[in-house]
Amino acid sequence: MKTFIEIHALQNFAPSNLNRDDTGAPKDALFGGTRRARVSSQCLKRAVRQYFDPKNNNGFFKPEELADRTKRLLGELKKQLADKGRQGTEFNEKIEMALASMGLKLKGEKTEYLLFLGKTEVSRLADQINDRWNEIGDPVARVSAIKSRLKEGLPNGEGADEKIKAIFYVLKLLDDTQKIKEEEIVALENNVDEILNVLTSHYEKIHPMNENTSDSGKGKKRKKSEMEEWENNIQEILREGKKGISAMGKALLMVLDGGKAVDVALFGRMLADMPEKNQYAACQVAHAISTHAVEREFDFYTAVDDLKPEDTAGADMMGTVEFNSACFYRYAVVDWEKLVKNLQDDKELAAKGLQIFLEGFVVAEPTGKQNTFAAHNPPEFVTISVRRNTAPRNLANSFETAVRVKKDESLTKESATRLSAKALALDKLYGTSANSRYAVAEDIFGEKFEAKGLGEKVENINALLDWALREVSTKEG
């Protein structure tokens, strides 16, 4: 059964510039034929994600249940590995080589793009690098490990030593005179098991070294037709294997499983160099749009030098700041089953994540130009719907025709009336019924206000959040 938890909010901001475009102006968009104020989903998600920080939610989450978005993975690994006692002239080089083995490229001290990694993932990555410290950058140790694997996997009887020599010669492992490249070591590391399968199935036909594979190890270059079947099979495996990631790189990548980081599970991530480690987000957040048409306004400001002589007139700095004022419709939806799956079936942690996401959506706000405008205006109408076995339903089309109000009428109240009417109309059209609750600030709406299309009214925001969490847990039960 698919379960979606949707949250809708109407939030009227006083004059502000919460989310700027490249020119410094408030973002906007055309909708329903009129210009609307807009706050991007990225801006809103960052505000909510910052609410996940233990400093902002009074330690609701343990540090290991969260993630960091950063380009400074190298610096964090250096710090953790130094704490484990790693040091020396090759300290930096080894850590950089470990990251390179995973396919991560560096520009100076930073990765090429922001990585969204759980704190647990980073600590486990440091543990893996620490455990494999002697292997990093040491081809001799890696070749020795490959030789050991092959010897352990092959029969050990009469003539085995001579056959091993022939095999090692073909694999360029016989002695130091056979130069082996990094890509060839990677191919061997990645395909030891497959090579052992070929050798085991052809073991009886493997002959000791002969005049073509002897002496100093240089031997004679042979055509494919002159090689034995097992040699040709192995050469084909090695040709394909050169395209892969090293065994160490694969081992390091194994720790990148999301780390049960709640913010990664909710907001998802894309790792360009490691697409198999991408995580699809459990939540979707819409761009907030004003329910009404807006026009940009300009604030002209001046600043005066405090130490300027009194007989000198005029400002020492002047400029303009663009702003607007708008009642925003905000919407987000959480896929409950996806959230649980992303958190490796930890339903208790998923419930905590859902709780903080809903709380953060209500109380978190963008920080753009807040020192200038201090537009700390919380939502005055919030509704939550829990939908099962049906598609999510963004109600932005409630405002396809821009809201217009007369003198002494409330934009927020008229927007809530529109929202309720649209929800009711869509339920009637699709034969569904609202499984919703809503909370309002009654000083504007009045005690008699009813949003019939949005379920029952509850006393306050806390009661609304409690209802949503109980509704999800009842379904789970």
What integer value in Å does the Rg equal? Answer: 32 Å
Count of the separate structural domains: 3
Question: Which range does the strand content fall in?
Answer: 15-25%
Q: What is the tally of helical segments?
A: 17
In round numbers, the mean pLDDT is 88
Task: Outline the low-pLDDT stretches.
Answer: 211-219
Oligomer: single chain
Q: Class by helix and strand content? A: alpha+beta
Alpha carbon gap, first and last residue: 13 Å
Please tally the β strands and state the result: 14
Described by strand count, sense and barrel closure, the largest sheet is: 10 strands, mixed
Give the overall silhouette.
Answer: elongated
What level of helicity do the residues show? 25-40%
Short description:
This protein has 477 residues and is of the alpha+beta class. Helix content is 39%, strand content 17%. The chain has helices at residues 41-51, 73-83, 91-101, 119-131, 139-153, 160-170, 182-190, 192-201, 229-241, 247-253, 262-267, 336-342, 347-363, 370-373, 411-430, 442-445, 461-476; strands at 3-16, 28-31, 34-39, 67-70, 106-107, 110-111, 115-118, 283-285, 288-290, 297-303, 317-335, 381-388, 436-440, 456-457.
Offer a few descriptive terms.
477 residues, alpha+beta, ten-stranded mixed sheet, two-stranded antiparallel ribbon, 14 strands, 39% helix, elongated
Description:
The structure is a single chain. Helix content is 39%, strand content 17%. The protein is α+β, with helices and mostly antiparallel strands and 477 residues long. The protein is built from 17 helices and 14 strands. The protein has three domains: 3-66 and 280-292 and 326-476, no CATH class; 69-137; 139-247, no CATH class. Helix 1 (41-51) packs across helix 13 (347-363) and helix 7 (182-190) crosses helix 9 (229-241). The strands form three sheets. Strands 1, 2, 3, 8, 9, 10, 11, 12, 13 and 14 form a ten-stranded mixed sheet that branches. A two-stranded antiparallel ribbon has the order 4-7. It has a two-stranded antiparallel ribbon with strand order 5-6. The chain starts with a strand and ends with a helix. The longest helix is centred in the C-terminal third of the chain and has 20 residues, at 411-430.
